[in-house]
Design a protein that fits this description.
- The structure holds three protein chains of three kinds.
- By secondary structure, chain A is mainly alpha-helical.
- Helices cover 77% and strands 1% of the residues of chain A.
- Chain A has one domain: MetI-like fold (Orthogonal Bundle), CATH 1.10.3720.
- In chain B, helix 12 runs antiparallel to helix 13.
- Chain C contains eleven helices and ten strands.
- In chain C, the strands form two sheets. Chain C has a six-stranded mixed sheet with strand order 6-7-8-3-9-10, sandwiched between helices.
- The radius of gyration of chain C is 18 Å and the shape is globular.
- Chain C starts with 8 loop residues before the first strand and ends in a 5-residue tail after the last helix.
- The N terminus of chain C is likely disordered.
- Classes of the chains: A mainly alpha, B mainly alpha, C alpha/beta.
- The interface between A and B is large, with 82 and 82 residues.
Amino acid sequence: MSGDRVTKALLFISSLTILLLSAGIVISLLGGALPAFKEFGVRFITSSVWNPTEGSEEYGAMAFIAGTVITSILALIICIPMAFSTSLFIAEYYNGTRTSRILRSLVDLLAGIPSIVYGFWGFYALRPLLVATGLTDQGFGVFTASLVLAIMIVPYATSLSAEIISMVPAELKEAAYSLGATRREVIFSVVIPSARSGIIASFILALGRALGETMAVTMLIGNANVIPKGLFAPGNTMASVIANQFGEASGLKMSALIAIGLLLFLITALVNYLGKLIIKRFA
Amino acid sequence: MTEINTALTDNIGRRNRTNVRFRYLVIAGAVITVIPIFLIVGSLAIKGFRQINLAFFTQPAPDTFQAMMAASTGDIIPGGIANGLTGSLLMVFLASLFAIPPGLMTGIYIYENSSQKYARFIRSLAEILQGVPSIILGIIAYIWIVKNITKGYSALAGSVSLAIMMLPLIIRSTEETMRMIPVSIREAAFALGTPYYKMIYKILIPVSFSGLATGVLLALSRILGETAPLMLTALGSPAISFDITKPVSAVPLLIWDFYNDPNMVSLVWSASLFLMVFVLSMNLLARSVASKHKYI
Amino acid sequence: MNNTSQNDNVLEIKDLSIAYEPGKYAVNGVTASVKRNSITAIMGPSGCGKSTLLRAINRMHELYPDIQTKGDILLDGQSIFSMSVIELRRKVGMVFQRPNPFPNMTIYENVVAGFSLNDIRMKKSRRDEIVENALRNVTLWDEVKESLYRKGTFLSGGQQQRLCVARAIAFNPEVLLLDEPTSALDPIATLKIEDLLGELKKKYTMVLVTHNMSQAARISDDSMFMYLGELVESGRTGTLFTTPKDPRTEAYLTGKFG
């Protein structure tokens, strides 16, 4: 029976990979970020100054934290009505039909398109449209980035919401119908209240994805290292500043970028944890 | 209770109208959601098709001067994405090598010990790791490999960043697939006195094979399109290279390069079209494997 | 009200056929009637179409577009298909197989759910009165009057089912459809519901689907026996049970199938 023990030991050892990996990620990020935090202290988070000029170097993450939070939340706001109606379409109005299956696969396709393709499409196809509206000169900025981000996160919010909406027991809906409620009334008084926490979790998880998205945002947000001054103003997110500046960075600047990576890691982990927590409560 | 009847005759019309209106709103919202798919696929197909020829697959990317000459005369830009294609394949292959064996084994471990605290903790770690933005994994591979092992940008570093992305995906899909196997199958195997390791590779893995394959294919389609971590690790290279200690290109990295060079615009459409078709067909393949070969 | 309201029959089912798939009839050419202020039991082995027939009476099948219905059902002489479905369901209440109080609503809110769902506003005092009456009618008032504002999910299965009956009768329907209302309950809770139905007969006409023959014998006035989608036999419950005319009815009643 020593074969059994060897197998069990092998499986256990392989499970250590992820443990070591996670610990390694946290330690490496902390270690890399340490010089920046030592130099600037809390100011690294609260300051929005980003000055790489040698001699007067100063790095603060606030502009990028703000850029990340603003674009992601705006993306979420745009995403909610789209994902909500699509999940009602798939899981309520056309549940179990061919139409529903087709729509579901189309939405899944959205999730399969690489981020850089979204960025490129946003740059060449969407940006000129926004310029044509006259709201923006160049078409770069928070709104353009958020719009593309919203399209990118719709499939994540939709598939989970749809799954949860389709799990609302038919007998509850029938009870409301038998009392004379219309479909809309059943949706608002039975379906949504029953599925509420699951729907909220699906949007939180979609937000978690938006926070870490890099390429599409980098290509559309305008890459200005300041707190965005308006919807159509340029800005920068935590992920996009890393993508843009990591290659030429060294010393303190490198440490500052790794520190931003650490903060992004913490924010996304927190948001994802919250989403998972709500789902576990729901189930 | 005539009050009910009166109230109903008063409000039936209004309620039916809002009901119909809401239905249209839902349909409109769903249509708006799928419009971008057609716009993206359509514009890439129309504008990217022109540059797709044999050279596109067999030749490395042109330099900007060649592209400028071609663009100024309206010709097709010479060259292709061969250096990106080989680089992508090299790194995806290495990443699979690094991630699939421990991923499968960890998935089986979690499934086999799902009642234990440690296994559940490992599962939560995998969930957290899955949510980590890919750019952060680029930073990690940079710190670990670029700075300390290959002393410079390298295919190895790129592969490691992709492997870290892949690992939690494989772990979770393995565990979820195995959980769908009826307990009775396992018990039947044990009842016949099957040793543990044989039960795993003669029963668990074959029975869940299509599910495992689906998980792997979906993970591959995820990492094939990844750009951000590769910018920090593999960097890109104008030539075809198979040296894992040297920088290599990848299709998404080429798109990024082309995008930053105004002369290459028509090539970027083609490269994007190719990448999208490649990733989506991998995705579709995964789904068809999942639906066709179902033991469970 | 037209002259047919003088008629003894509240419901007239005319040559009703229902198919889940084209050509596959779950209910096939059923013609029957239901008398006012009586309990009519529909019996038969599982899959005979009894629930399908019941759910046609409040047009529940319209929720599922694949289901096709032919024939007609008259309520007080008027075709139910010519009415607005809201109006129909206001006149025909329903109690389901498993207790299904709305988990997001309190007991109080559950009883008046018909009003809130239908957007009917009224004074608090009037609502209180309706809640108390409905809960008294289902003999639940004394058990829950202290916890009206708690969610209904803590109640026992039998209490939940009585709450569901209260929810249906609060809306004061003419007809109450009961789809195996006791099949998920223990014998004592079942007995309470049966007693309750006997009381409610004074006010409402009830159609009861049951696979429990003794229940049909105990509480129904009229019975229908269905087999393979067809109405095999119907009549006074006493007559049907003692002298069934059709051999299939006799086989069912003597336990040969089902």
